[in-house]
Structure formats: C-alpha cells, structure tokens
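Case study: Response regulator transcription factor.
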Amino acid sequence: MRIVIAEDDPLLREGLALLLRAESHDVAATASNAEDALDAIGEHQPDVAIFDVRMPPTHTDEGIAAAVEARRRRPGLPVLVLSAYVEQSFATDLLAGGVGGLGYLLKERVGRVEEFLDALRRVADGGTAIDPEVVAQLFTRSRQDPRLERLSPRERDVLALMAEGLGNGAIAERLVVTDGAVHKHIRNIFAKLDLSPTDQVDRRVAAVLRYLEDIRRLS
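Here is what the predicted structure looks like once written out:
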C-alpha cells in the first residue's frame, strides 16, 4: 500500500515511516505541514493518507482541514487522522464529509502496533476506524437524538463497535454473543434509525454518521 504521512513531530513522523516500511508498505512521502502534504498526495496518488490534526503554522486545525481538502480534491481518498486527545468537533468535521475510508485514532493507539495496522488496513479498504474513546465521548453527547433513544443498551453497544470499524464476527467475539444475534441487532439499528435497504450509502457507516450529525448541531 502506498502511503503519505503528514505529521509535524519528527520523531513520530519517522517512527511511523519506519514501522510501515518494516511492514512492506510504500511510504511515498512524509510532510511536516499541511501544504506539503497536499502537494505530496497530488504527486504520489497514495492508497491512504495519514494526517496529524494539529499542524503548523498555528497548530490548531490545519491537519484536519487538509484531510478534508484532500478528500475534496480526490473523492474517496482513504484518510486516517491522528490526534493527541479527543477533539469532537474535528472528528465530526472529517466524518460528516462522506462515508467510507475514514479513521480517527488517538496517537496513543499507534503504540499498539497491531491495532494501528489493523485500523489502517480497514481505512485503506474503504471501511472506518474510530478510536473507542472517541466513540464513547460521541455517544455520551449524542443521546439527546430521539432516534438514538430508540436503541436498546445492547444495540448501542453494537453501534459503538460498528463505529470502531469492527465486522460482525469481531463484534460477536467482543460481546460474547452469536453472529446471528449481532446480525439481528444491526437489522434493528437500521430500522430504528430509519435506514432503508434501498439507501445508496453504506448503512453501517450511515448509522454512525446519524449521531455524529447530531453532535455537529449541538456543538
């Protein structure tokens, strides 16, 4: 997989590059600022881009803005965003812009190498990977949405794991239930959130976006 890394911390930037190259991935370019990252993406056409949220010159939202801009220039570009801590408005800015091929992880997750690599693979394959801590905080703020109030506690658990990017089998294993039970819960989630089988979107991602959209309105 061809990757572009945008991270202003030189130790983390080079550490990520070494880790990914050791896994036989092609790190086509690294960048320390958003402008160079966008140029590198245009030049190298990566399979996935990794962005730090806060980058020079102001270290506020340059990274997330660049990730959104990269997706605008190249629709569907898989993007994995790294943040030092949960920044809810930034998460919704990224995820509300489209479905599929998106991830938002806390930087501490990078140290859990297998989890990080698994998340990167899911994003590159067009899936989602949202840090469990981000999911927990988003759910806490989103329960005023009447659609989400329709969900049972177990259905909320399933939706949280869907948001992390887990498939049915992994959800069943995490919750210690059968695959059939997970399938039934997901079917109920779709029904309660008014997601029709005829919708031209990935309903798993759309279910997550329903509560992210509510958070955006509350912010």
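For the exam, be able to explain this: The radius of gyration is 17 Å.
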